[in-house]
Amino acid sequence: MVKIRPEFADEIKKFGGVDFNACYNCGNCTAVCPLSVTDNTFPRRLLRYTVLGMEEDIQASTDPWLCYYCGDCSSTCPRQANPGEIMMALRRYLTASYDWTGLSRKFYTSKKWGIGSLVLIGIVVILLFAFFLPFTADPAGLINEDGGVKINHFVKGMDGETFVKTIEIGDLVMAAIITFFLVSNIFNMYLKIVIRNAKKVKVPFSLYVKEAWNLFYHFGTQMRFSKCEGKSYWLLHWLLMSGYTLMFTVIVVFLPWFQTEKIHPIYHPQRFIGYYATFGILLAIIVWSVNRLRKSGEIHKYSHKTDWVFLIMLFLTTLTGIMLHIFRITGMVHFTYYTYVIHLAILVPMLLVEVPFSKWSHLAYRPLAIYFTNLVNKAAALKKK
Predict the structure, then answer these.
(1) What whole-number distance in Å separates Cα of residue 248 and Cα of residue 245?
(2) Nearest-angstrom CA–CA distance, 214 and 235
(3) 332-358 mean pLDDT
(4) In whole angstroms, what is the distance from residue 47 CA to residue 35 CA?
């Protein structure tokens, strides 16, 4: 029995959905979509589900994650129902529906929660440094023999090795928190998609193993993006994703190798990774921000508040990281240390909020959606044989 909830339209509007009741299900959006296939009326089906309020069917669908919002469907819609923007709103809604804590919903639908949580966590980070890790008052001896600030020696009574271990423990605790919430939300996603569809067709264990390569391939390449906006759009997104993933891995897993006292030559892998990540992230931020301000193209006409919060937090993290590096290699001791704290006060809340509950979670949900889709479709194909 299909449950229909007419008031669901108002729910989606809280997540940024525009007025889509003008849709009369003509199918034009499916006809122009480069990702639509013969057995899937994409994105027409999800738009129809939204109009009718078929909430359970929407939660069991992967279609919103398979859309990369090229804007063709919206620009050619004869009724201006804006199906592309609806898919964006549905992604936010699905992120909230997977989250058992209810925090994603609050972050997406409330400015106070969204901005307030980032500010609060940032203040906690600053207070931890202010009360538990007091800065040394004497900058003497904090410059390396070959120049540059000793990044790990600005705390009174704590040697560099102990400081790095302390920060590393903090990194691991933060990573554990992020992993717990993200993995538990992914499990909810699995229940809603694969297990619900298992009532119609059971997925054999062998398929989970056989199709696992899709998960890693699509996460690592983001190749489906190129089918929408072309190679330039794909490359920009890939630079952002790969740069962020590299930096996150290095900072969380290999911090003692990355945060060293010695300033390595510019060609050293440590600096190359940092410069590559900075370039990729900064380039994506600038291009997307300019396009959103100019409202260039269909995909940039509408910007949800969380889109701007994400871009601003990512920009501030990158900017303080660049400033920290410049202050350090030029020997500006106090500027280095204070910028280090400000950098962490922006980075930590961005990771704790964005990765499990908001925009960054898309990096996990998109390839998983492709993986789950393949599991269900191939299990159905096996059943027909």
Answers:
(1) 5
(2) 19
(3) 93
(4) 16
